[in-house]
Amino acid sequence: MFAFTSLGVDIDRSINTGRGPYIFRINGVVHHRIGSLIPKEGNRPQYAQLYIYDTTNEVQNRLAIHSSDIGRDSGPDAQIVDSLISMFNRYNPLVKQFRMARDRLLSPTALDVRIKLFGSSDTSADRYSLPAVNEFAALLVGDMSSSTHPCDMVLESQQGRFTRVSPIHPALMALQYPILFPYGDKGYQMGIKFREVSAGCRGARDEVSMMEFHCYYQHYRRGESNPVLCSGRLSQQYGVNAYSCVEANRLSFHFFNQKLLRSETYQGISDALGRGASTGKDVGVKTVLPTSYPGRRRNLNQNYHDCLAISRVYGCPTLFTTFTCNANWLEVEEALRCEPGQKPPDRADITSFVHNFHLQC
Question: Can you tell me the distance from the alpha carbon of 138 to that of 52, in angstroms, rounded to the nearest whole number?
């Protein structure tokens, strides 16, 4: 209802049959897209357009997204929607920029208006210096420069195509989940440095990875409310979406660093013939993933040979044991008691931690 971008993904809805806890599962590649500031003639406003077009009836336009739920007990409340709109108008810097664009477009002498969402990897401005100006988004009026960084996005008032938001854009999560980020917090971006800690605990790297950033952001801290963890099904969607961005970032790294993986040794004709290939359909430029990448064929083959090697030394296994997590364990109940209103399926971080603890014991 409040998202700026659309979540283009194939959601698996067959798994939730009512016989177990709710599970958010996706298939395929995730795409976050954002369109023009004003909808085409005859189309209803949606996503970011709701912050600009027909704001006089904004509450009704947002409620119309879930019109089938109006009147039910679980349907959206118009008063809550209106209070959330007021909160975003006051505190969210992204919403403020879109409201400024709306005021410009309503002006009788309106010029060409665009919104620029910065994707710069320069983290020194907000990490090591006092904030001076808002560098999250900017309103472009007239024929100003459209882009200065490869990750910058410029939204025009009328454009016939959708703009895909990069997984490493710092505004990605704030655009997709404004409820979880009411202040428009910056997300992951390139160049975030580690804090000064004892040497040797993080290896040769001096910058935070995307996985480490999301793990830190979703870490539970006693006495501190974390909307990312306390939002039920929305927290599940955020976690899955964040991990999909991590996977996309990893695949992008492997795609642009094939020379480091020595992939040319797998692309020759002699290698194809050595594998028994009688035709040339398998010969060409391929993207090779390392054996350390989980879930791929090379990784599965390596794990399979490791299992055979262990069985050859220690003998074949004679017992197959499964271990499940009990939601009524005392540790889980005590952890959930600190945040009232939550259920075990809503806190996968607690159940997985307690499960691993019992498994080690």
Answer: 15
Q: Per-residue DSSP letters for 192-238?
A: PBPP---TTSSTT--B--HHHHHHHHT---TT---TTTSSTHHHHHH
Which percentage of the chain shows pLDDT scores above 90? 14
Q: Are residues 268 and 217 in the same domain?
A: no
State the average pLDDT over residues 29-57: 86
* 133 has pLDDT over 50: no
What is the rounded distance in angstroms from the CA atom of residue 234 to the CA atom of residue 24?
Answer: 9
Which residue did the predictor score with more confidence, 83 or 286?
A: 83
The amino acid occupying position 322 is: T
Torsion of CA 38, 43, 47, 48, to 10 degrees: 0
Phi, psi of 9, deg, nearest 5: -160, 155
Looking at per-residue pLDDT, the higher value among 6 and 355 belongs to: 6
What is the overall mean pLDDT for the chain?
Answer: 79
* Pairwise CA distance, residues 133 & 191, whole Å: 20
Residues 101 and 72 placed together within one structural domain of the fold: yes
CB atoms closer than 10 angstroms to residue 12: 13
- What is the spatial distance between Cα 156 and Cα 166, in angstroms, rounded to a whole number? 18
Which range scores top for mean pLDDT: 152-156, 159-163, 237-241, 272-276?
237-241
Same domain, 139 and 277: no
Q: Which residues contact 226 (CB under 8 A, 6 or more apart)?
A: 218, 220
Instruction: Mark whether 219 and 246 lie in a shared domain.
Output: yes
Neighbours of 170 (CB within 10 A): 23
**Residues pairing with 32 in the sheet:** 7
Q: Judge whether 58 lies within some domain.
A: yes
Helix, strand, coil proportions of the chain in percent (round to 5)? Answer: 40, 10, 50
> In this structure, are residues 15 and 339 in contact, taking their beta carbons and an 8 Å threshold?
no
